[in-house]
Amino acid sequence: MPELTERRPPSEGDDAGSGPAGPRPAVPGDRAEHLLAMHRLAVGPDATAALLGWLARRGGRWTALLDADGAVLRAAAPAGAVPAGAPPAGGVPEAAAGLAAEGAALLRAQGAGSARIDRAGLTGWFVAAGSGPARPVLAAIGPGAGPAGLPRLLADAARLVELCRQVEAAARDRERSERADAGSREAVLHLLMIGELPAAHRIAAALGPELPDPVRVRVVEGPVGRRAEIAVEWAAATGDRSWIVPCPVNHGHLIAVSPADLAPTAGGEPAGPADCAIGVSGAVPLRETALGYEQAFHALAAARSVPGRQVVFDGHGDLAPLLGPAGAGWARQLLRPLTEYAPVRRADPGAAELSGTLSSWLAFGTAAVRHLKVHRNTLAARLDRVQDLLGLDLERLPGQATASLALRLRAVPVLPAGPAAPVVPAGPAGLELLLATPATAHWAEALLRPLHVAGPPTAAASVRAWLAQDARVAPAAAVLGISAPALRKRLLRIEELLQRSLLESPSAKYDLWLAERAGALAERPGRAAGR
User: Fold this and answer.
1) In terms of CB atoms within 10 Å, which end of the chain has fewer, N or C?
2) pLDDT tens across 110-131, in order?
């Protein structure tokens, strides 16, 4: 039978205890010193492990926090201070495992506050670390009774160790909750980007705040380590009216979907943090959040180099609304093989998933794997399927620009076509007809004007060469006879001229290709295609 020596908290008599061999060595230090040391550890990182390790070193034996059944929750052991055959520090020595379970069971059965069990040359000290039938137990097990003062040291540490474990468990629960909330908010943003408004509204209603309509989209660029802090600051500054999500693609960006009546200028809204740049979109309907994001991203490219580091998108408008019912009809025809696609196998991606993949890839390129949370091979397989369905060469810029325009046209509200509305054939032939209209020519001229009015002589030629090489810097530089870094510098200066992002996604390369093509179609015979 094990010896039960205590059913109360250890007392002064335990500290002065002596064994058959005479007085035991005392635990180094006095009680005040111990309490101060333990409280310092309790407010530090990984407090439970730190406290158990400190106790194990002071007592010279395996020390653990057990649950009410004796299972080890956390443990520590100094080298050489545990029974033979013990595993590395933190493990459960075989000889101590049974003693630990027995000690915890004894406290639970007897309702004791503490106990001592001696068996096979080992002594186990056990102290209740809480209250109630499921209270945990602090245990110290090793050869002999151990140093004098050990029982009181355990009594002083027991509740503190359990409190630290509870705090750490609560922190883990909070982190899981925050991750789940962040994932849900990212899902709402993804649904908005692909135009799935009903589903986005349902999730947003549960999380709050409700999604506004119309909206302005803001892209806030700042230090990666401050994203959470900046999000809290921005939410408070705007009265918690913004839907704020860390960008799943660019880890230095926050995306804020705000009510359109939140003034877009620095004088009408709270200024951004000093170490941030902010791009602000124009006012757009909620269903066009993806367009608003692109506008904000382009404005961000200009905001990095201006005083105040905040720019509102003041572009020349989107091409899609200018194309009217004819453009909407062309887009429907072009996308019909995709939108009506039904996979042979239920597990294969359907029309909505393939459309979302195409939209994400056109916006983010290879970074779409982070946006969609898929493997790169999955992304490649989906794009191959989309390419086959649409009959477009998605490896080339013309095919990409065609698909991008079609997706944007699909998001534009369809107005009833009049009896004389032209029917535009699907595919590149129909696109040529749409780009040859006077409205498109005017849009193209306005978009490209800064290249010719304010840009250096090389600006327009650099952009044309870059577009002709499918927006690849190295081949375009070779055509121009300059180095790739030199062309990259030119394009960065052109970003400031156009107030559009070129080298980072989402890029204005699709609009620039469409504008160049529209300009070529508008040229008089015998005149050069470029501006």
Assistant:
1) N
2) 888 888 998 888 889 999 887 7
Per the confidence metrics, is the pTM higher than 0.90?
A: no
Contact 437, 519 (CB under 8 A): no
Using an 8 Å Cβ cutoff, are 355 and 194 in contact? yes
- Calpha distance 485→476 (Å, rounded): 11
Q: Is 317 left (phi over 0), alpha (psi -120 to 50) or beta?
A: left
Cβ atoms of 321 and 438 within 8 Å: the answer is: no
Please check whether residue 497 is in contact with residue 450, taking contact to mean a CB–CB distance below 8 angstroms: yes
Burial letters 269-279, b for 16+ CB under 10 A, else e: beebbeebbbb
Amino acid identity at 96 = A
> Among 334, 262, 268, 271, which Cα is nearest to 292's?
262
Q: At what angle do helices 31-42 and 47-59 cross, to 10 degrees?
A: 150
Q: How many Cβ atoms from other residues are within 10 Å of residue 438's Cβ? A: 9
Mind spelling out the 3-state secondary structure of 18-37?
Answer: EECCEECCECCCCHHHHHHH
The distance in angstroms from the start CA to the end CA of the chain is 99
Task: Give how far Cα 472 sits from Cα of 228, 384, 395, 475, 476, Å.
Answer: 35, 21, 12, 6, 6
Cβ neighbours of residue 27 closer than 8 Å, sequence gap 6 or more: 34, 58, 59, 147, 148, 149, 150, 153
Q: Give the pLDDT confidence of 178-196 residue by residue, as tens digits.
A: 888 888 888 888 888 877 8
Is residue 391 within 8 Å of residue 365, measured between CB atoms? no
The answer to whether 92 and 75 have CB atoms below 8 angstroms apart is yes
Report the b/e string of 304-337 with b at 16+ CB within 10 A: eeeeebbbbbebbebbbbbbbbbbbbbbebbbee
What DSSP assignment string belongs to 152-221? HHHHHHHHHHHHHHHHHHHHHHHHHHHHHHHHHHHHHHHHHHTT-HHHHHHHHHHHSSPPPSSEEEEEEE
